[in-house]
């Protein structure tokens, strides 16, 4: 459909000989919505017929001119105005005979698919309902379809907790739950990304010598010992080490005890 400002203008129904651009019922609904959008509900039948005729397209106008005049069936309560009569003539020409049971079967089988929003889902049963002749019960059947066959169990549980909600209320509730679920997923995703960054950051700044780190923490399976005195309570850089200024009786060097001396023999000095 083309748009004039914010108004959707239906396409020409039959601009050239052949097949119409869409099914008659759908096109007529689009045309009537167009009339409403331009505040034309109060237009005279003559003006409505003129608008209808203009959007039929060149080939559609030629077909219309060839159609017989519509005659009200016996027992009709009131005669049709010229707009209603024109619609009836076109309806008899283009309305497709549909099997109501087949239409309702298709309607009943339509379930919400994974990744499909509730708004996108509702649009499909609404189209399928056109061949079901639900009349004034259309919204009720669509509502039930949404409650029974929505993909999310959370949405379904929330809808089932309501007592006889309207289709409009069902849409509002379902959309609110969907938004909440989406926000929760985004929050969880952000939290997970933060945890990954934290682990990576800790790994990046971790000490290169794990034994030294374990010794500093006072834990680990093999803590290092001071190479000056042999104590495991501190390392060699500790200024309080008792061997720091002591002479080794084995190698005669200052700074460690003979017990930890690595010299192979006594110095001859």
The chain-level structural class is mainly alpha
Distance between the termini: 106 Å
Task: Give the helix level as a range of percent.
Answer: 40-55%
Strand content: under 5%
- Sheet with most strands: 2 strands, antiparallel
Q: Give the overall silhouette.
A: rod-shaped
Strand order of the biggest β-sheet = 1-2
List SSEs in N-to-C order. Answer: EEHHHHHHHHHH
The count of helical stretches stands at 10
Overall pLDDT metric? 83
Total strand segments: 2
Radius of gyration: 42 Å
- Which regions contain 5 or more consecutive residues with pLDDT less than 50? none
Domain CCHC-type: 225-243, 247-263
Organism: Pleurodeles waltl
Protein name: CCHC-type domain-containing protein
GO molecular function, one term: zinc ion binding
Please give a structural write-up.
The chain is mainly alpha-helical. Helix content is 50%, strand content 2%. The chain contains ten helices and two strands. The chain has helices at 24-37, 45-56, 58-66, 82-94, 100-109, 118-128, 138-149, 153-160, 167-204, 210-217, and strands at 2-4, 7-9. Strands 1-2 form a two-stranded antiparallel ribbon. A hairpin with a 2-residue loop joins strand 1 and strand 2. The longest helix has 38 residues, at 167-204. The N and C termini lie far apart (106 Å). The mean pLDDT is 83.
